[in-house]
Amino acid sequence: MPPPHAKIGRLSPEQVETLKRWIAEGARYEPHWAFVPPVKPEIALAAPSGHPIDAIVTQKLAARGLVLQPEADRATLIRRASFDITGLPPTPAEVEAFVADGAPDAYERLLDRLLASPRYGERMAADWMDLARYSDSYGFQVDRPRPDMWPWRDWVIRAFNDNLPWDQFTLWQVAGDLLPNATPEQVLATAFNRLHQQESEGGSVEEEYRVNYVNDRVTTFGTAFLGLTFECCRCHDHKFDPLSQKDFYSLFALFDDIDEAGLYSFFTPAVPTPKLRLLDDKTTAALSRAEESAAEAAAACDRAMAVARASVADWIACKAVPPDAFEAAGGTIPGEMVRFAFDGRAQDGTFADGLGSKESATSPAENTVVVDPRGGTPCTALKLTGDHPVKTQVGNFRRSQPFTVSAWIKPAMRYDRAVVFHRSQAWTDAGSRGYELLVDNGHLRWSLIHFWPGDAASVRCVEPLSVGEWTHVAVSSDGSGKAAGLRVFVNGKPAATDIVRDSLTREITGGGGDTITIGERMRDHGFKDGLVDDFRVFSRLLSPLEVRELSAPGAIRAALEARSDDEALAEYFAAAFATEPAIGRQKLEAARRARDDLAEKPREIMVMRELPQPKMAYILERGDYDKRGAPVEPDTPAALPPFPADQPRNRLGLARWLVDPDHPLLARVTVNRLWQSLFGLGLVQSPEDLGSQSTRPEYPEVLDLLAWQFSHPTADGGLAWDMKRLMKTVMLSETYRQRSIADPKTMADDPLNVWLARGPRHRLPAEMIRDGALAACGLLVEKVGGPPVKTYDLPESFKPEKADTGESLYRRSLYTFWRRSGPGPVLESFDVPKRVVCVAKRDTTNTPLHAFVLMNGPQFVEAARVLAERLLADSAGDADRALARAFEGLTSRSPDDEERRIVRTMYEQQVGWYRDHPEEAEQLVAIGAMKRGDVLPVADVAAATAVINALMNYDGAVVKR
Fold first, then answer.
1. Looking at residue 669, what is its pLDDT?
2. In 10 A of CB 581, how many CB atoms?
3. pLDDT in tens, 371-387
4. What gap in Å lies between CA 138 and CA 834, rounded to an integer?
5. Which of 2, 95, 280, 953: CA 20 to 30 A from 193?
């Protein structure tokens, strides 16, 4: 029972006594009906139609003294079915053919034809976009376009048109990436989980938003598949349903294990990780060939290096004369680009390159030159504040280019995080794209990055960095872009490293910050109070002996004189002087660059990919991201069926738990939403909440009948998760086929049609209103899929976008560019949600704004004008005939005598006005991008346009009956 402080009233003494007596007499507790699996129905009731839905409904109606209404007339029925299945109206020819078809199976054949149409997938996808919170932008204040999510929307359309079984449709979206040998299509489906808002504003806390993203996935899962309000138990136990805060974070643990950043990149167009590269067969083959070419070039380079190393071994063994280049080198290190000793500032504040080039370094005065002994010898160095950068003019290396950077550094403390140097624009604001040397929890970490964390190669030193001591550090990349190609040397010796990330797939350049910066980075932690000296950059991969030379000058000369370190000398010669390896390295770099250029072209989309090791999840006190409480294991809510013992504790196990035919919620929730789409109201009126606070369904038997059938195999009498068969099953019932008007008393007593004593009657959704007008006027471009388009109204949206031209203006509304902070104004005026969160039911309003949009929106005025021109031309100028045909196209029926009179009067008034005001006629018919004809009198066209535009606003054009 609710506690007294809930303030929802108290039971009377009589009620308390009744409850006590009920308990004393052996009251049995029953769980909430939605948490009990539906059982196989045994319909013993009779219905004239023989349909089980009708049997249940007619019996309950009879108890109220009611009966089903007669079947709607044929024109109404085909219009109703066409909108419900395809989202578009039937053509006048289709209406005429259906009305004339007297065969007993005419209606069933109509349903089969409509369900086979590619329009079906588009219509069904429109509803799923609301649940999935699909948007073409990231959301929040910046709300930048996110142009690469539409391939998931197209997958949804294909899945509906292919009639992918609903259990697979669900499983793929929750955990397609975890299926054995998952296909790209199955991985693509998991983009469902990444359609939430994402943030990039300055000052945002990355972990806070990462946690918000996981929270969103949990609540979306709860709404879309379970029909439960999980938002309530993010901060505390649910007040009404048996869902605890632990339940929430147990689900959180199942959606947490991906390599995800809390912020997307502001400075680069990088797709946040994890992601899927979208490849066609041609690109896949080209990439495969490029990888093979790079591998062949690497093998050839290795062979050349081996020959070069062998020649040095012969020389050391006195079997050959030392190469001239080797002898003349005298211990030098070729390929050095700059060297900054920071011995003193010039008058202009710069530090000169010790090699004599013009590539100086700059630093604010806050970074000071100090003298600090190193190895007993006084030396000058630069002391860094951590907030002021030292900027160089070099270092814009691609991932295919080998390079080496070295410096002497002296940490002032054990840093949790500190940037020693980097080549990037920013930390979170650019996804760290570039390369960086950090101190990470006291250890050096060296990384090449396209987008952190999931698209990077990174290694971390096993041993911590010494604090308060001078340490020589050199880092290098061999151009492979692999973690194995990253090396760290400490005091001239190779350091043992662990691989942090090895998933770099794309380029590390771009996005700004194209040269090396020392000691500081935007929105990051600098090398505060640390010292740096002898900073050197090389445009090649140095050999270990060369790195030893940087740390201890004279090391190369000593090795040459001693001729004892065969391996080091051989590697030095092959890396620095041998001709054939040099040629091989050039070819290898060219092959890798060609591969990398090709890899930049395919689109990418955010998806789910599980980390090798799951993260630990915690109950977050009051839902705060930084207040971790007790740890939790992945699990499902205790009030629902237990997690299957034979399934992995990950999203795949969760998905299989969900699609079990005996799960109490998935089928019920899905059936209820389908019923809502057909009748305007679900069997449970709160599709987002089937919990204890929901309205108990008027017809629980219908809900359970359809839920059991939908989820169980055909061998048992079920539908095997077949969505098309489920829709057809409902639409074949007399309950669905009734006319939508009952007697006045029934209409007054049951305005929402909860009793189902009449057929559906409700205003069409926004997309169907716009698409229906375009289709009826012959403007709709029926091209399935593709990038979002920008329609006439987007220049007037909250964040204006320039409208497209050509056929993009006339695509179905499903493809309209959807900015989360402000969808297209025409659609928004008819109650589409912003899709900030998962929405299971749209609001439905009725305001003067609707008429204003329909009678003034450029796309509606243009559509009316195009239809007017066509019908007037086809009718040889007979306005009555033309307008009657327009009425038929917009309402799917012929006008009655009174409607004809009204339309005729409207036309006569309008044509008189426009003949007296020809300039206004010209203005009206000039609206829209579609070129108008010049044969018909402009006043006639303008008058017909005005009348047809008014008809678009007519109840019969925008309400489904």
1. 98
2. 24
3. 999 888 889 999 999 99
4. 12
5. 280
Nearest to 914 by CA among 936, 884, 883, 886: 936
DSSP 141-204: TT--B-TT-HHHHHHHHHHHHTT--HHHHHHHHHHGGGSTT--HHHHHHGGGGG-S--B--TT-
The amino acid sitting at 17 is E
The residue to which tokens 């795949």 are assigned: 652
929, burial (CB in 10 Å: exposed 0-12, middle 13-18, buried 19+): middle
Distance, CA of 57 to CA of 52 (rounded, Å):
9
- Cβ-Cβ contacts under 8 Å for 396 (sequence gap 6 or more): 423, 509, 514, 515
d(CA 736, CA 756) in angstroms, rounded, equals 9
- Please state whether the predicted TM-score (pTM) of the whole model is above 0.85: yes
Q: What is the pLDDT of residues 414-457, one digit of tens each?
A: 999 999 999 999 999 999 999 999 999 999 999 999 999 999 99
Q: Are 849 and 953 in contact (CB under 8 A)?
A: no
**Residue 487: which H helix or E strand, with range?**
strand 486-490
The one-letter amino acid at 729: T
- What confidence category does residue 326 fall into, taking pLDDT thresholds of 50, 70 and 90? low
**Cα first-last separation, the chain:** 43
Is the distance from CB of 230 to CB of 644 less than 8 angstroms?
no
- CA nearest neighbour of 248 among 627, 608, 638: 638
3-state secondary structure 576-604: HCCHHHHHHHHHHHHHHHHHHHHHCCCCE
Q: Number of helices (H) and strands (E), helices first, in the chain?
A: 32, 23
pLDDT at 332 over 90: no
Tokens 């971790």 sit on residue: 628
